[in-house]
Amino acid sequence: MATISLSEPDAARAVPPTARAVRLPTQWLGVAPFFLFAILFLIAPTAYLILGAFQTPNGAFTLNNLAELWQPTIRAAYWISIKVSFASAVIGALIGLAIAIAIVRGGLPRWVRSATMTFSGVASNFAGVPLAFAFLATLGRLGLVTIILRDIFGFNLYSTGFNILSFSGLTLTYLYFQIPLMVVIITPAIDGLKKEWGEAAATLGATQWQYWRMVVIPVLWPSFLGTVILLFANAFGAIATAYALTGSSLNIVPILLYAQIRGDVLHNPHLGYAIAFGMIFITGMANVFYIWFRTRSERWLK
Amino acid sequence: MTETYLSIQGVKKSFGPTTVVRDFSLDVGRGEFISFLGPSGCGKTTMLRMVAGFEEPSEGRIVVGGKDVTHLKPNQRKIGMVFQAYALFPNLTVAQNIAFGLRVAGMPKAESAQRVQDMLKLISLPQLGDRYPYQLSGGQQQRVALARALAPKPRLLLLDEPLSALDAKVRVSLREEIRSIQKELGITTIFVTHDQEEALSISDRIVVMNNGRADQAGTPFEIYNRPSTRFVANFVGTLNVLEARVLDAQAGSVDVAGQVLALDRDLAPKRKGDMISLALRPEAVSLGRAGARTGALAATIADVHFLGSVIRVRTKIGDSTVSLDTFNDPTMPPPVSGTPAELAFAPRDLMVLAD
Amino acid sequence: MKAGKFWAWLTFGLGAAYFIIPLLATMEFAMRMRRGTYSFDAFAVVFGDPRFQQTFGYSVVAAFFTILLGVLIVVPTAYWIRLRMPHIRPVIEFITLLPLVIPAIVIVFGYIRMYGSNSPLPFLGSARGTDALLVIGYAILALPYMYRAVDTGLRTIDVRTLTEAAQILGAGWGTIIMRLILPNVLIAVLSGAFLTFAIVIGEFTVASLLNRPAFGPYLQNIGANRAYEPAALAVITFVVTWGCMSVIQMLARFAPKSANRPD
Questions:
Q1: Are residues A39 and A106 in the same domain?
Q2: Same domain for A146 and A87
Q3: Where are the domains of chain B?
Q4: Is the model's pLDDT at A3 over the cut of 90?
Q5: Do A197 and B89 touch (CB under 8 A)?
Q6: Would the CB atoms of B54 and A202 count as touching at under 8 Å?
Q7: Which residue of A has its CA nearest to C229?
Q8: Chain A residue with minimum CA distance to B88
Q9: Which of A150, A258, A269, B21 is the most buried (most CB within 10 A)?
Q10: Interface pTM (ipTM) of the complex?
């Protein structure tokens, strides 16, 4: 360090004029690796699939691939995926919100909050294959909860039509990472609710409910909706948990696409592109809706 | 004072083992502007929050307009409150913020719109009704907060350090505006502040609080000129304190750093040899010949600060420092530090501080 | 007030039950391997399985290279954006958030079609190349988290002033990045690194579709063929995740607190 600062003053003095002369290119040079990386490995592969969705195997433009998405199996897969993602996102968001409010505003001891936040950090990343194992060990036919319900309470869970390998089972499993993710994201937003707002509302004569309806809910709404969209995308693209839980027996889009990539089960490579396009389209539309909503109705946001 | 409107009777507040307000009693007349003045942690905000209903007193009663409100919830008290951090609702426009209390009370739309317009005019921001809080400056936000608090015609206005977050200049203009609006509406007001200048300039009466207790309550004039405790004397205004030894209690003769000084009062129950603290406001001291004034002490000029219209001079008497202010006189050169000087004052301006 | 506290406890209690019961059940299930008594046999079998050691080792190495790649891409970029090009920040932020919107399976599908052995960039033509592509894919998946962590770290130090101070003292860019910026955002980088590790270690989709012998596909394979070992593996993975998060929490305590220019 010392040698550098002693030996280079002349060089340092000489640099600024040159740097100014070629400022524009050098400036962009600094971010070139990032853009190269993002284009090669994120944008181009995605664009390739999107383009492929509109092409025949010969490269001609077609809408047939998209039309073929309408066949019953694929349509059903999309429908189940949307249902599971939507249900797990909305339920996860509501429960996560309730937990976040409880730990921030509920007057609970401090350790409850820090424990919940730490655990949420872990659980929101505990997805994929191991999560499926955990739920099989809990609610599978030989799972602990199933057995306790049967042996101690005389309640046969599986006779009610419940199945861990079903829509409700998958939703329940997804909630294990959706709820904590909501808690992690929404807690700062709830911290942002100032105590004085509630006090000001109270002095103005508002009841607790009026304060919630007129201030808290409108203020939290954008963060809430944004997180719901994120949770939706999170569940919509998830495959590992469902695959480990159900094998390929549950017909959801990512599993269908997985099978298509591995073995062209649909006998049309470009139909695979169309499925991928459909997935991007749905998560993308969710985000577009969110951005539109924010810019339109939330003028008070800076 | 007019009839009592707000009466705080023997209020005490403890959080667990710590008592933050003790034995606080105060009667406030209708339309009076009262300041709670004190350093942070003195209990002034807690007292205000008990009047607002956010805290329940451990002991004592709070009566507003003849009605005991001690255990009433804040939203049933019909009070207006302004907070230090503005606390405007960020999702509502200025007009919607002001209309909040009216909407909650179920006032018809047209009537409420009219009232909002009146309030906007009152705070001189008639064009800003459609703005959102983040588009306003701090001073404007606080004026909106004031309008919001006043819109439902509250029985009491509570101001919790409303000027602390603002720039010095805005602070002065807004406090004058608050005072004139308060006078115009004749609303009984409690103003919490730690800034003595603020309290002195706008209050009808000031309650100086220290350590959970009301040390003194009185008009700004009384508080400044006749502080009843050492704490009040120190906290309000600048004060020179001289330690003195009593020579003759009855005759009021004391020794200040080797110089004999005659006070025009009986110092009993102090006795010969006791130490007492004497206090002098800077403006009560002048440099040079004693003239008609009888008190005089020899001192040395320590340093001189030229402040424009006023020159603040610090002098040394033994180990004690005495500051004094003289007006700038273009024909007279300012005093030079290191030179001897004579301090002159009227003995009745010397305050003997209780401990 | 009292009622509010009751509801808060109830909400917390129900939530805690939902999250803790599966963990207990998994542990219990894993210990059921020996008939009639609880034992750690399943764990012993798992740890003794050479494929467990190989795949876990492979994933650890992959995670290491992912972190390295992520740091090399993200730190200079985030730094440069803060220093010289704050106006294109929204663009960078948008790109870094894309992996949260585009499912991993779609991205890897794109790789398979674009980087086959006959393409100009034949990553998939060799095993090493496929390994590289796996690491690249992981770096993309971790991009949102890594960028967020580093950017937050940079926000707490005054990048511009620090850089100018170093330049006045005659430091070159290499010195500035290596000796000034990196040490100051080290905590943030490490947080991002451990988060990346937690995401990558059990990742299934990319590894499986690229046919790499990683831990995720191994987990899936065991799950499909064994009874008790999967539960043991779930417990092990949970402990690894927990470890990563605890390290992040600990690191947060050492993060520089000086926010002299909060923006």
A1: no
A2: yes
A3: 4-235, 240-352
A4: no
A5: yes
A6: yes
A7: A133
A8: A197
A9: B21
A10: 0.85
